[in-house]
Every structure is written in C-alpha cells, then in structure tokens.
C-alpha cells in the first residue's frame, strides 16, 4: 500500500511539474483544426477561402491547398512556445486576423501574452489594435452589425485577455510569496545560527569564569599541599589531585576553544578511553582512597570500539556516583563476557561513616546520558538501590562485530560523551 501511495504521489508530482507543457500541446492540437478551417472557408481577408475557392491551373490549386495546411502547422508550432515567446504568437494571430478573418486565435494570443509577459504597455497596444481590427473586419467583410461584432470581440478576445491577466497576476503573486517564504526561512536560519553562537559563547564564558577558575584553584592548593605535607599518603593524594586537575584544565581549554569557534582551536584529539584504560581508572580511584574490587569473567573477545567506550563510561560514571554519595564505601566492578554481549556491573556499599553531610552537587544527567549512550548501541541500563543496602549500576550491551584491521568505526557517541559527565 505504501509503495502504491508513493508511486501515485510521484506520478502526481511529475504531472504537476509538466502541466504547462501538456497545456501547450493540448492548445496546439486544438488550434490546428480551427486555423485550418478558418483558412479554408473564411471569406474575410485576401487569403480567405483559398482552398475552397481556388481556381485555375492544378499547381495553383495544389499550392493553395498546401498553404491551407502549412499555415495552421506553423501557428500551432508557435503555440508551443507561447510561454517563452508570446510575441510571436501575437504577431501570427494578427496576420491571421487581417488575412483570413480569424477571430479565435487572437484570443489565445492575448491570453498567453497577458499570462506570461509582464510588459503591460505592449499588451495594451496589442489588445486595442487586435480588437479594433476585429470589429472593423467583421463590419466591412460581412453583414454582421457592429453591435454583434463588438459582442464577438468581447467573448472571443476580451474575456481571454481578462482571464490571462488574472492568471498572470496570480502566478506573480505566488512567485513573490514563495520568494518571501524562502527569504524568511533563510533569515530564520541565520537568526538561529546567531542565537546558537551567542549561547555557545555564553556557555564558554561561564565555564571559563566558574569551572576553570575553580579547577585552577584546586590545582594550586593541591600543589601547595604536595610540597608542604609530611605524610607520604597525603603527598601522593595531593599529587594525584594536581595531575588530574591539570589534565581536566587541558581538556577544558580545548572544549572552550571549540565552543567559541576560534580559528586556531580544535576539538581534543586524544584517543577515547576503552576497556584497556580501566586499570588506570580503577588505580586512580584506589589511590584516592576508594576500595575497588575489579573482576573479569568469561572469555574476552574483540569488541567494537563504541562498545568498549560505553563500558568504560559506565564504570567511570558509577565510580563517580559512588565517590559522591558513598565516600569510603567498598565498590565491586565486574565485567562479564558472554556470547554476543558484555555485562558491566558496579556495586557500591554504604559509606562506613554514613551519608555525607554535604555531598558534592550533581547535575542529575549522568545516568540519563548513560542510558542514551547505551540506547545508541542497543544496550540496556538498570540502576537503583540494592536490597541489602548500597547502589547497583548494571549495563548490558551487545558485543556486535569488532572492526577488522584498518577499518575505522565511526564515532557515534560524541554527542552523548558530554551528557554523561556530571
């Protein structure tokens, strides 16, 4: 059914795009017998009734008969170009009016000229000349009374002229409306781009004034503590804080440059972390005082880079939440390699000293961004309190097909990368 609807819609679109050309051929087919009849039997004009009234030698009769068929063919050919060159059809209709008394073709010429030519002064001159010549032709060449001649001119020429003026005005109005709509759409896109640029600049300014300042202050205090502390554990912790803060500042500067769209700024090009970087991540949390038990079960198999990045971010987000809401509590990280899927489970115990009185602020978007990241690869996420206390984060993601050597996998989770940080 959908295919049939699509085929019908395509046919309608093609027909609508070619409707003017179809109208040209239809009018040309209708004009040919009419002009041939007028040339053959119309008594008005020097060429009127040439084929029917020709006498003399056979060549003259044949030439008059050929003229009867060639003239309508030439005028019908001009009907096909009535939209691009309506002046030619107007001149031909004037010649037919004067030579054979054809009062119908001038109506088609006036309609075409009014609908497709914007020169109204030339149209007025043609209209007055053709209508005056038609009235004079009918009055002089036949017994038609002037009132009837005027009525014929009004029906066969004035009415087509009026319809042509309406069609031309409507077509110009629609074209102007289309142009205005396109211009407004372009202006709307420009305004949206300007608003996006202004918002990116504001975010970059706020990040620089708040986040960068606080992180820089943290790095300075950690450096001072590393120098002045006597306890080795305190010195090691301060060094870890200083190193982590400096890395965060470097990444933050790259992000700020991208947000401000500076010419010499580029997005951070460091490789995205994968499962091989989990040892470093867990080691940092252990050095920071968080007891982390890390286990890997099953038979490891090559995984797509996006799956490995998602698994890493899952562990990172779970450890961050455990450090915020359950500082000092034991954490267990388990990776289960199953046929066709990878399961990541992070359990944290309740803090030994109870919940922190002043927990660090959080945006609340970490788990939401993690769900979006997992949805991109067809995985699932379950997070909530455990029956015996503590918190559990469990993610199951399909293993998929690992990229072959030399094959680069597109980085689809760059948008979710920022959402998982909190």
TrEMBL record:
Domain Signal transduction histidine kinase subgroup 3 dimerisation and phosphoacceptor span(s) in chain numbering? 199-262
Domain (Histidine kinase/HSP90-like ATPase) ranges: 308-399
Q: What is its EC number?
A: 2.7.13.3
- Residue ranges spanning the membrane: these are 22-41, 61-81, 88-111, 123-141, 148-168
Q: Which UniProt keywords apply?
A: ATP-binding, Coiled coil, Kinase, Membrane, Nucleotide-binding, Phosphoprotein, Transferase, Transmembrane, Transmembrane helix, Two-component regulatory system
GTP-binding listed as a keyword: no
- UniProt catalytic activity: ATP + protein L-histidine = ADP + protein N-phospho-L-histidine
The terms under GO molecular function for this entry are: ATP binding; phosphorelay sensor kinase activity; protein dimerization activity
Q: Which residues form a coiled coil?
A: 167-194
Gene Ontology CC terms: membrane
Q: Which InterPro entries match?
A: HATPase_C_sf, HATPase_dom, Sensor_HK_TwoCompSys, Sig_transdc_His_kin_sub3_dim/P
Q: Where is the composition biased (Basic and acidic residues)?
A: 404-422
The lineage's top-level taxon is Bacteria
* A Pfam cross-reference name: HATPase_c
Comp. bias intervals (Pro residues):
353-362
Write down the top EC class of this protein.
transferase
Residues covered by region (Disordered): 344-367, 380-422
Name of this protein = histidine kinase
Source organism: Streptomonospora nanhaiensis
Its lineage opens with:
Bacteria, Bacillati, Actinomycetota, Actinomycetes, Streptosporangiales
């Amino acid at each position: 059914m959908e295919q049939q609807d699509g085929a019908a819609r395509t046919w309608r679109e093609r027909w609508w795009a070619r409707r003017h050309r179809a109208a040209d051929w239809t009018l040309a087919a209708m004009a040919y017998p009419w002009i041939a009849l007028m040339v053959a039997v119309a008594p008005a004009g020097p060429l009127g009734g040439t084929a029917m009234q020709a006498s003399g030698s056979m060549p003259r009769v044949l030439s008059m008969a050929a003229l009867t068929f060639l003239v309508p063919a030439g005028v019908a050919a001009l009907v096909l170009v009535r939209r691009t060159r309506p002046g030619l059809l107007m001149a031909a209709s004037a010649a037919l009016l004067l030579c054979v008394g054809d009062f119908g073709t001038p109506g088609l010429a006036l309609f075409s000229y009014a609908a497709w030519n914007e020169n109204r002064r030339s149209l007025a001159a043609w209209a007055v000349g053709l209508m005056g010549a038609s009235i004079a032709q009918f009055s002089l060449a036949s017994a038609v009374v002037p009132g009837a001649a005027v009525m014929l001119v009004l029906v066969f020429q004035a009415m087509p002229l009026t319809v042509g003026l309406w069609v031309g005005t409507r077509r110009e109005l629609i074209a102007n409306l289309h142009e205005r709509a396109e211009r407004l759409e372009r202006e709307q896109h420009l305004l949206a781009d300007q608003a996006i640029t202004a918002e990116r600049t504001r975010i970059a300014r706020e990040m620089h004034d708040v986040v960068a300042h606080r992180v820089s202050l943290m790095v300075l205090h950690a450096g001072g503590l590393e120098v002045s502390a006597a306890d080795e554990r305190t010195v090691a912790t301060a060094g870890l804080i200083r190193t982590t803060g400096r890395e965060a500042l470097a990444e933050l500067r790259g992000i700020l440059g991208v947000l401000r769209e500076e010419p010499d700024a580029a997005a951070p090009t460091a490789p995205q972390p994968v499962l091989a970087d989990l040892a470093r991540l867990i080691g940092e949390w252990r050095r920071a005082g968080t007891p982390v038990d890390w286990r890997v079960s099953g038979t490891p198999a090559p995984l797509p880079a996006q799956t490995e990045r998602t698994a890493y971010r899952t562990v990172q987000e779970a450890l961050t939440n455990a450090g915020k809401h359950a500082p000092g509590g034991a954490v267990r990280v388990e990776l289960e390699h199953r046929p066709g899927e990878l399961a990541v489970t992070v359990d944290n115990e309740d803090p030994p000293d109870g919940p922190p009185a002043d927990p660090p602020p959080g945006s609340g978007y970490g788990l939401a961004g993690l769900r979006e990241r997992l949805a991109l690869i067809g995985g699932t996420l379950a997070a909530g309190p455990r029956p015996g206390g503590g918190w559990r984060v469990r993610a199951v993601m399909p293993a998929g097909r690992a990229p072959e050597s030399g094959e680069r996998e597109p980085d689809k989770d760059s948008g979710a990368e920022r959402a998982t940080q909190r």
